[in-house]
Amino acid sequence: MRVYASSAGARGARVTLGVGMRHVVVVAGIAFALGVGTTARAQTADELQSAGEEAARAGDFAGAIDKFKAADRVAPSAMHACLIALAYTRRNLWPQAEVFHTMCHERATAGDPLPPWVDAADKQIAAAIATANVAAITIVTKPANAGARITVSSFAQDESFAPRMIHLPPGRHELFAVAPGYSEARAFVDVKDRTPQRIEIELHPWGGVEAPPVAVASPPPPAASPVPWFVIGGGVVIGAVGGLLEGTWYLDAVHKVQGDVPGQPDVRTDLDTWRTRRDVVIGSYAVGAAAVITGVALRFTVFRPGGARLEVAPAPGGATVGVSWSR
């Protein structure tokens, strides 16, 4: 595809597209596929309910629950909640079964009556819970009027309920409480036997009480780096080499210059040698001193020992992180 742009004055720009036949065919194919997709008719709540009932008759209760939930999203009703509760009963998942069983009764109205088989389902659920290895867990939130919704770690993400009493099997369960204007709160409950428990979850409003910052100690600082000492040592060695050269190699040239007689042909050669060796010795001293100064600077700047400290404080929508260090 080729794109040509031309000026259209102060009001905007005009863009011309040059499209080859191959691109036209591709675009037409995509448009046809989208057209076919949009003409597909969505299933009605009754059709989804029938599909769920068929899955339940085939013993696929998990699939039946998915279909009943899909039907309930299209048209919430007491019947759908009762069917979900019944399917969970068949799976022996009593916490979910009693939550949807309660929803079934709460939704019932004259225009949306309970199914005729609900009495038998009520008795079956009550009898099963009475004999099952579950504990009665009463969940309350503070404040009680926050309109909180509770879910359990073993529940599906789309399953929540108002604070109430539910029955949980043995194990460690995490409870989540969310309410408008409040931060999400969590609590754990350990179920070891059938002993009833009461779990209170305290909610904190946004911008209200926040958890104190959690100090996370950084790992101990690593041992001091030897790099500065290597640089300092190198400088000392270079300076020592310069001193050795000055006392031998350079001094020999000095003696020759001092013993020269003006006008003799070797005077110029001896002076050139002396200047060269003098410059080498001075250069050795300069490089050695520079290395020592660099090593000292590295020791007290880049490689200075110190420890860092990380602080994490929960905040609405995330957390704040602070870093401090010693110098």
Note down, in words, how this protein is organized.
With 327 residues, the protein is an alpha+beta fold. The chain folds into four domains: 43-131, Tetratricopeptide repeat domain (Serine Threonine Protein Phosphatase 5, Tetratricopeptide repeat, Alpha Horseshoe), CATH 1.25.40; 133-206, Carboxypeptidase-like, regulatory domain (Immunoglobulin-like), CATH 2.60.40.1120; 210-221 and 306-327; 227-299. Helix content is 47%, strand content 21%. Strand 1 (2-7) and strand 2 form a beta hairpin. The longest helix is centred in the last third of the chain and has 33 residues, at 227-259. The radius of gyration is 42 Å and the shape is rod-shaped.
Structure at a glance:
With 327 residues, the chain is α+β, with helices and mostly antiparallel strands. It is built from eight helices and eleven strands.
Largest beta-sheet characterization: 3 strands, mixed
Low-confidence stretches: 1-39, 209-214
Assigned CATH architecture of the largest domain: Alpha Horseshoe
* Shape, principal axes of CA atoms: rod-shaped
CATH superfamily of the largest domain: Tetratricopeptide repeat domain
How many DSSP-defined strands? 11
Mean pLDDT level: 79
Q: Which secondary structure elements does this structure contain, and how are they paired or packed?
A:
Blueprint: E1 2-7, E2 13-18, H1 21-39, H2 45-57, H3 61-74, H4 78-90, H5 94-107, H6 118-131, E3 135-142, E4 149-152, E5 165-168, E6 171-178, E7 185-191, E8 197-202, E9 214-217, H7 227-259, H8 267-299, E10 308-315, E11 318-325
Parallel strand pairs: 3-8
Antiparallel strand pairs: 1-2, 3-5, 4-6, 6-7, 9-10, 10-11
